[in-house]
Amino acid sequence: MDRSSLYLMFVAKLLGESVGEEFLDLSGCDISSLKASVLRKDYDEVTRSLLGKALDEFYKNYGFEAKNEPDHLITMLAFMAHLAGDYSGESLKIQHRFLNVHLIPLVRYAESVCPGLRTMREILEEDLKVVSTLLHAR
Length: 138
Fold this sequence. Notes:
single chain; mainly alpha; 6 helices; 62% helix
């Protein structure tokens, strides 16, 4: 499976679609609450309130238009799917930063309200290692 498909599979699963073998247990999870502005307790309240706008601008800079809330986990995963097919040095740097600064920390906090996301976090951490390896190979 290519990296873009991996991210799209996560999006589909969070949207409630069947993606074959069930590897994420999302039972009891309120998917609508999986937003950085709600869950990222490492940011103060003012910063959390500005995350959506900042992320939306970030997405636009890289040719991605958020169809839903920019700080929602589904949108962030869709953005990574958008980037993951591009292996240029610039794209890999953006992917590395986004995974490290935004996506993985959000999933880590989201695990407190949806423990089944642990598997997703572990896969994202492995993907970060892949991106790091690709960056260092340049």
